[in-house]
Amino acid sequence: MEMTAKELAAALGGTVEGNPEVVVTSFAKIEHGKPGQLCFFANPKYEQYVYTSKASVLLVNSTFEPKQPVQATMIRVQDAYAAVAQLLKIVTEHKRKHRRHRSLLSRVAWSAKLGKKVWVGNFVVIGKHCRVGDRTKIYDNVTIGEGTVIGKDCIIYQGVHIFPGMVIGDRVILHAGCVIGDDGFGNSRRPDGSWEKIEHMGNVIIGNDVEIGSNTTIDKAPMESTIIADGVRIDNLCQIAHNVVVGKNTAMAAQCGIAGSAKIGEACILGGQVGVVGHISIADNTTVCAKSAIIGNVRQGGQTFYGNPGIAHKTYLRAYAKFKQSGE
User: N or C: which end of the chain has fewer CB within 10 A?
Assistant: First the structure.
């Protein structure tokens, strides 16, 4: 990356205060900024570094009014945090060269159909009748099972395993080691107390613009589908059981566990290590704080839950205050 402040402002729809020709070649946190680097200021807690940073360029909100002189060239944008995300995307797209490549160490079935400029790394196995969309990049040691359909502009990182018959949309990112479509934890108990495995014949359907973290597992359904809707973000080390439905633009942090047939609404946020029991529904725009457990239906959207079992956040805080007082 090498851009002038003027070029950055044009790309981000901002205005320059200072030297428009100053050049930046990398990014840094505002407290670590050095000449030639770009930093951003969006959190008032870090204002002290605005005046001491050695960075060449600072992205700031258009409403920011400095209390002291600022050495760096400032680029004023409507939302500095969002502008950084936009800039990182621009730089990443510039670096990413779309070209067709198929490693001689890969194994692609004759009946598989790969789109234009698909990149296939070492030791990749693509099964019969698979379809892979244009410009998708498949890194080393990935396994894609027979009959799987993968959309355009996807990134599938090292060691991902996709079982047969899965459906994955456009612009999906699967991080290293995640597993899509293994059997769910389905067993029925025999009269003698032993377990009978329930065969899983369904699949997983992943929508567009989904990102799934490293070593996350999404189980296929015994019948029908486990569904991850458009825009979902799932962090590392999460477990999504069979027949779960995750609504559009929902995000869950690391180590969440969602039991079978649970339905999570749209635009929900689940903190780290949240647990959700099976066969319940959670309404849209629900927030569940870290380490909480949801054990019953959430019918009204827009609520925040905390605790185990999860209860309304304000109720939890009042109960916790009384709990503390009881020990005094």
Answer: C
